[in-house]
């Protein structure tokens, strides 16, 4: 185990810490193990920064008891952290995915509060902090990612006060009335306050957090600034503000422009029996995504004869997720029962109502699906951002396609020309689906053009550079001289200019 202080070979000036590494351990049929790059947006966003800064990435390799020495992968220094089977059950599936995830998503599912899960969360966070402390050079910048590691900023600051520490929360931060259920609510807030800059997806997440700080700590807050004074440590100004994440929009558009992908999109439509309208849903199979609400609206439209199965097909990709957590097993059963019923009731020999896929696809196929879809349906009940919505927009270089987007996603703050829906309002969702089907081409393209401008301008490279520039200002101590900003009601797309503190 690494020591909690700086080790002899601590020589990375930039360190990213996330639960999962940017590479996955893959084992061939003959038992040979190797590493493959995981396709996530975070990797794409941080890769150029990592290379330039000669950075290290600290994270878990995705399998139990994987004790592997640090290694280099395509120019990135990978520093694996081992998790035991017990820790995967208690820290990861338990506290992260069955306590924090439902609590932070409006308690859509009931969070479990178990002291042994919490103990495991503390221990594992300490391990990540120890490893990060050991590999960080003097005065390094460390960027911690997401809700699994909220105690790491404080643990790291205690071990290494010289570091500049950033934290980004990919999921929502709940209102205090919900957050206050958490028996360990004060420890989590104190853990996060170890960072210099705490980033959230939406304005509402940042204001929820500062409100929790006011209720649970003696630290004064003003707009984006929190004045933290801890006995024995220098008083610091912590900045908590939104940095809405995005995608590598250019690479999605480039793929969509490839003739082979467009050909594949045509094949997909043909395979569906060339319906007039193809609607698409792409989600991890998660109760936050509102897949059931979408199916209900679609099923009712078919039952009422307001759409015809010959004309409209819904393609639903439900990527398997957290399959050992009980709430996810139950959700899968519910969704698949509903899909089966709708297909049984309305399908014909030549036309299925719902083309349902419980597996993941390669990115090429995803882009072909985006191109094949006249309408993308995003009906999340709560979602930090929702990258799928942005990917659809980035792919539609033809300026066609209609985005139906839940107002409970972070993306709805920026994509105002989507058809915004409240997914709980089933009649509203049904009406919106009908308007999307009937929308004239001119209106489709005007809306899509507007959304494309935002997604292409505010891409993920811009997101990471905005965050890191803010962190750099914290590093050189400039915050002490910068007046805190007031948080607006909601985020405008010009966020980057207005928030350039
Ligand atoms: C969390 C927050 C926030 C899905 N199926 C396939 C596939 N995907 C890709 C999508 C997209 C990603 O997975 C899903 O991202 P989302 O943002 O939609 O949702 P979460 O997984 O819940 O992500 C969320 C995000 O973090 C980032 O901060 O936006 O709010 O919950 O990129 O394309 N990719 C491939 N095959 C699939 O079958 N290749």
Give the names of the bound compounds.
GDP-alpha-D-glucose
**Biggest sheet layout:** 10 strands, mixed
CATH superfamily caption of the largest domain: Glycogen Phosphorylase B
CATH level-1 class of the largest domain: Alpha Beta
Content of β-strand: 15-25%
User: What fold name stands as the CATH topology of the largest domain?
Assistant: Rossmann fold
Describe this structure in words.
This protein is α/β, with parallel strands linked by helices and about 500 residues long. The chain folds into 2 domains: about 10-245 and about 460-485, Rossmann fold (3-Layer(aba) Sandwich), CATH 3.40.50.2000; about 250-455, 3-Layer(aba) Sandwich (Rossmann fold), CATH 3.40.50. It has 17 helices and 18 strands. The strands form 3 sheets. The protein has a 10-stranded mixed β-sheet with strand order 5-6-4-1-7-8-9-12-11-10, with helices on both faces. A 6-stranded parallel β-sheet has the order 15-14-13-16-17-18, with helices on both faces. The protein has a two-stranded antiparallel ribbon with strand order 2-3. Strand 11 and strand 12 form a beta hairpin. The protein is globular, with a radius of gyration of 23 Å. The model is unreliable at about 490-500 (pLDDT under 50). GDP-alpha-D-glucose (GDG) binds near residues 171, 362, 386 and 387.
């Amino acid at each position: 185990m690494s020591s909690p202080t700086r080790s002899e070979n601590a020589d990375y000036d930039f360190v990213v810490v996330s639960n999962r590494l940017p590479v996955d351990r893959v084992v061939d049929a003959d038992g040979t193990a190797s590493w493959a790059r995981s396709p996530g947006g975070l990797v794409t966003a941080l890769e150029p920064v990592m290379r330039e800064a000669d950075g290290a990435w600290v994270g878990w390799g995705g399998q139990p008891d994987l004790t592997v020495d640090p290694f280099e992968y395509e120019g990135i220094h990978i520093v694996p952290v081992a998790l035991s089977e017990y820790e995967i059950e208690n820290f990861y599936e338990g506290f992260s995915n069955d306590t924090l995830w439902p609590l932070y998503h409006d308690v859509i599912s009931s969070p479990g509060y178990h002291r042994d899960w919490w103990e495991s969360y503390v221990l594992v966070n300490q391990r990540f902090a120890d490893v990060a402390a050991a590999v960080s050079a003097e005065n390094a910048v460390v960027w911690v990612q997401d809700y699994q590691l909220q105690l790491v900023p404080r643990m790291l600051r205690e071990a290494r006060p010289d570091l500049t520490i950033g934290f980004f929360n990919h999921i929502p931060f709940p209102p205090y009335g919900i957050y206050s259920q958490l028996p360990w609510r004060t420890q989590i807030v104190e853990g996060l306050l170890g960072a210099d800059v705490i980033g959230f997806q939406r304005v509402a997440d940042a204001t929820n957090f500062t409100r929790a700080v006011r209720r649970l700590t003696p630290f004064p807050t003003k707009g984006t600034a929190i004045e933290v004074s801890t006995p024995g440590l220098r008083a610091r100004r912590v900045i908590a503000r939104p940095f809405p994440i995005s995608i590598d929009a250019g690479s999605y558009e480039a793929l969509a422009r490839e003739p082979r992908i467009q050909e594949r999109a045509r094949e997909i439509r043909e395979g569906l029996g060339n319906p007039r309208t193809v609607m698409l849903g792409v989600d991890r199979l998660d109760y936050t995504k509102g897949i059931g609400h979408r199916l209900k609206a679609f099923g009712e439209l078919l039952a009422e004869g307001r759409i015809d199965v010959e004309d409209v097909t819904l393609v639903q990709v439900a990527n398997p997720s957290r399959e050992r957590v009980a709430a996810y097993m139950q959700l899968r059963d519910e969704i698949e029962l509903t899909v089966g019923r709708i297909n049984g009731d309305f399908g014909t020999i030549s036309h299925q109502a719902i083309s349902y896929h419980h597996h993941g696809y390669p990115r090429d196929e995803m882009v072909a699906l985006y191109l094949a879809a006249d309408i993308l349906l995003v009906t999340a009940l709560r979602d930090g951002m929702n990258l799928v919505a942005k990917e659809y927009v980035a792919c539609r270089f033809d300026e066609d396609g209609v985005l139906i987007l839940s107002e409970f996603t972070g993306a709805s703050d920026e994509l105002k020309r989507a058809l915004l829906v409240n997914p709980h309002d089933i009649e509203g969702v049904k009406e919106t689906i009908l308007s999307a089907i009937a929308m004239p081409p001119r209106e489709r393209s005007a809306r899509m053009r507007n959304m494309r401008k935002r997604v292409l301008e505010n891409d993920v490279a811009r997101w990471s550079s905005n965050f890191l520039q803010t962190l750099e200002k914290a590093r050189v101590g400039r915050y002490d001289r910068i007046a805190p900003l007031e948080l607006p009601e909601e985020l405008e797309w010009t966020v980057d200019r207005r928030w350039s503190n």
